[in-house]
Amino acid sequence: MTTSEVRAAGGDAETEHRIVGSRSRWHAMKPGNISLVYMYVAGFILFTVWVPHLWLSGVAQKSILNISFAVPAILAVGLMVPLLAGVFDLSISGTVDLSSVVLASLMIYSHVAAWLAILIVLAIGMLVGAINGILVAVVGIDSFIATLASSAILEALAVSLSGNIQVTGFKSGFAKFGSGNLIGGVQYQVLYVAVIALVIWYATEHTAPGRYLQATGENEDAARLSGIPTKRYIFISLMVSGLVAAFAGCVETAVIGAGESNLGDPYLLTAFAAAFLGATQFKQRFNVLGTLAGVWVLASGVEGVTLALHSYAWLNQLFFGAALIVAVGLGRVIEINNRRIAIRRRRGVLDQDMPGTVSVADRGAAAGDGPPPD
Amino acid sequence: MTTTAPASEILLEIESLSKTFPGQVALDGASLHVRRGQLHALLGLNGSGKSTLIKVISGYHREDEGGVVHAFGVETPAHQVRSSHPGRVAVLHQDLALIRGMSVAENMGLGASFRTSRTGRIQWGRQREEARDACRRIGLHVDPSAPVGSLEPSAQVIVGLARAIRSLGQIDGSIIFADEPTAALGSREVDRVFGAFRELTSAGAAVVVVTHRLEEVLAHCDALTVLRDGRTVAEQPTAGLDKAKLAAMLTGRPDGSELVTADSPDGPVLVPGEPAVLAVRRLRGRVIESLSFEIAAGEVLGIAGLVGSGREELGPLVVGALPRASGQILVDGREVGPSTRQATRAGIGVVPADRKRQGIFASMSVAQNMTVNREPARLGGAWLDSRAANREVDSWIRRVHLEPPDRHRKVSLLSGGNQQKVVLARWLRCSPRVMILDDPMQGVDVAAKTAIYRIVREAAAAGSAILLISSDSIELEEAADRVLVLRNGRIGAELRGAQRTSERIVMEVEG
Q: Which of A254, B84, B141, B166 would give a disulfide with A178, using CB separation of 3.0 to 4.6 Å?
């Protein structure tokens, strides 16, 4: 029993204060809260009707899981950590580029063992994250600018190291690291998603440091005044995304069997779109489950349209770009709606106390009560 | 009232104006009468309704039903005074809304419109000339291409005023409202700003000035209106008044009345030989100059002072949110490092002045907001102990009488007073050695105020040292055992026991 409880027990008038407990179960099922699930169901039905033989085949669904979902999901979940801390990491695609080229060069040119090469690449990923962390948390450069710049530098390194050609010639067994069969056509890369997502989910949702990280992203000033070392959490979050991006680079390199200096480019937008879509789901902030759902729905959508129409080079970019706008727009709508509800509720409280005063309350006063729009 | 003077002389006449916000009555039948050519002071302590009155008249808030307002001889709804009489009402807001990096001429153009040629190019020559003339007309000689930020504070106020009155059709017969234009100025600079107001009133305008400084009211203004708790309690000419009478009007207590006595008249005192819970030694910041004081266990030390006296700087300095130039801070005799992290680890808790930006995590729940500074965790922090957290949060929800008592509710959905209770509970659950309350009652209604006083007293009784920094003299009188008045970054006065009346605090603060 803590001291505060002892004090509380001695306090007066405690009986008249009931504590409101759990939320209604329906709260979690509201369309605003799990719109992605509804969207997925709608899409699933659409493609089932449109191209039933292609869409419902195991090949198509496994292709979504292995090819379109796995690596973007690893990246998106890693990216979510700095986003949760309130900073961007645009350098994840550059990190994927560099790790792909370094991994291939080490294994093919220098004949380094696979496990050692991967460890070296992961260390490089953490180093990249640490440098980003120094730029953002110590020097104080805006994270958007700092990581945009470091991404360009990483790409440049990758191009110069590879001589702008594919680095090929892996031993045949290495592909298994990425696309080896785990069980029933599901590949190893899906296992990595599961493990990484589980670890990050646990750390962000169920540990005290995870809560501090979240508070830092929510309101850095208030977090610092609450005694949270906010700089440290921002630094660590960028190291995590660097590490995870480097690992994603290793997996993708194994899957395609070559080191490429532009391997990460298409994934940046996917990861951001998924993380932001995910932030509108389940929690109304960045969260692992929402992010995974975001990647899954995006991957399924692209796959479905490709099956139904044709594979177009521009399809992915269009789809992900539109999804990002929808995601951020959706978040904004939810926020505005919540503010309206809050104002209405407070009016309701007033209504009981002072009848007759509410009717003339105006929009101007309401706007003045809420947080300033920005 | 219309019978007391010719209608042409009275420009604005407000009777029984009310404005209710959710959970708070800001104006409760206020009245105001402004005459042509008059420099009129609008006075009142914090929360008395001055700003609300100006916001209603300038159209930002709509008044409750029941009030009667005559503007320029015509009955007008209060919030339409400005829109129904275009070119006759100007408002100078407290923050001036000037862009510091842009020139005087550019700022003038942003407020009204730029002089452009037919092709849309700004005619900078004419623009600058007009800006220079507009400022000169109210007594400021200024280079129109100088960045506003490079001007001294009083000149910035006058530029803001010049811009505000550009919207007036003519000066004669118009009304200009100025919301605390002198809050951040020294006394010489105050005179210059009032000189500008005087130019306007001699041209036939009426100027209504909101201010906290009593001597400038007595020196410059013709008449005054005093608001208290949203009601007008005095309307009269300034002639024949002195500071003591004014202070009594503001606080609502006649001179020399009996105080509400604290438990012991002097409050807790330092035990000789034992270190004070909080000791501040020769602290220097940007404004604060060599400030030293100590707080005993169980003592509530109040800090009073005007804007710019160092009052706003003290809390952030002690908690490490602003860098110290020099000086020491000791908690229980042990020195505390300069960072916020070190301060909080030493047992200093803070309720920051800017609740929205520095206090709450708006979209997080009540429970998360309360536990965010120290999460109850098992296994060395690896696993959040949500059951322990919920138990603790619930007990604090009861102790601070949080309304509604719901730990899942988003903090942004609570009223200001209840948000403040959450921030308080965040620290009190950790039994802090020192609790800094930086203007904790902003936007807090009376019922919540009483609850917060009680909670703070309990914390003091448990041995914490409380630093209560406040712009509200009544609050200091009611809650503090001892009051230090800051002036120009130094201690101007120390009030204890029966001295620490609201009137005395107001007088010492004004210097």
A: A254
Architecture of domain A29-351: Orthogonal Bundle (1.10)
ipTM score of complex:
0.72
- Looking at residue B380, its pLDDT comes to 67
Weakest mean pLDDT among A171-180, A268-277, A332-341, B291-300: A332-341
State whether residue B378 sits within 8 Å of chain A by CB.
Answer: no
| CA gap B15, B225 in Å, rounded | 13
> Could you name the CATH architecture of B1-88+173-245?
3-Layer(aba) Sandwich (3.40)
Secondary structure (3-state) at B426:
helix
Report the SS3 class of residue A184: coil
pLDDT averaged over every residue in chain B: 85
Query: Over the stretch A113-171, which tens digit does the pLDDT of each residue have?
Result: 999 999 999 999 999 999 999 999 999 999 999 999 999 999 999 999 999 899 998 88
Topology alike, domains B1-88+173-245 and B278-510:
yes
Domain boundaries, chain B: 1-88+173-245, 98-167, 278-510
User: Is A334 a residue whose pLDDT tops 50?
Assistant: yes
For A135, A142, B426, B487, the CA distances from A223, given in Å and listed in that order, are 20, 18, 12, 31
Cite the DSSP H helix spans in chain A. 3-10, 35-50, 52-55, 58-63, 70-84, 92-104, 114-133, 143-162, 176-179, 188-206, 208-218, 220-225, 230-256, 265-279, 288-308, 315-353, 363-369
Are the beta carbons of B384 and A221 separated by less than 8 Å? no
| Residues in B 317-346 with any Cβ partner in A closer than 8 A | 319, 321, 340-341, 343-345
Instruction: Please name every residue paired with B43 in a beta bridge, in sequence order, or none if there are none.
Output: B226
Would you kindly state where each structural domain of chain A is located, as residue ranges?
A: 29-351
Q: Position of tokens 């699933």?
A: A44
Minimal C-alpha gap between A34 and chain B (Å): 18
Is pLDDT at B1 greater than 80 in this prediction?
Answer: no
Residue indicated by tokens 């604090």 = B396
DSSP assignment string, A194-207 = HHHHHHHHHHHHHS
The interface residues of chain B toward chain A in range 406-435, judged by CB-CB distance below 8 A, are: 406-410, 412-413, 415, 426, 428-429, 431
Q: If you measure CA to CA, which chain A residue comes closest to B316?
A: A225
In the predicted model, is pLDDT for residue A285 greater than 90? no
The answer on pLDDT for A310 being more than 90 is no
CB distance B296 to B478 below 8 Å: no
pLDDT tens-digit readout, B99-133: 888 889 888 887 667 777 777 788 888 888 888 99
Whether cis (ω within 30° of 0) applies to the bond prior to B147 is no
pLDDT at B265 over 60: no
Answer yes or no: CATH 3.30.40.10 is held by domain B278-510: no
Spatial separation of the C-alpha atoms in residues B495 and B482, rounded to whole Å: 6
Chain B residue whose CA is closest to A362 = B62
Q: For residue A32, what pLDDT is reported?
A: 63
In angstroms, the separation between the Cα of residue A28 and the nearest Cα of chain B is: 14
In this complex, is the C-beta atom of A12 within 8 Å of any C-beta atom belonging to chain B? no
Band of residue B329 on the pLDDT scale cut at 50, 70, 90: very high
Six-digit token string for B43: 């006075």
A 93-132 near B (Cβ less than 8 A): none
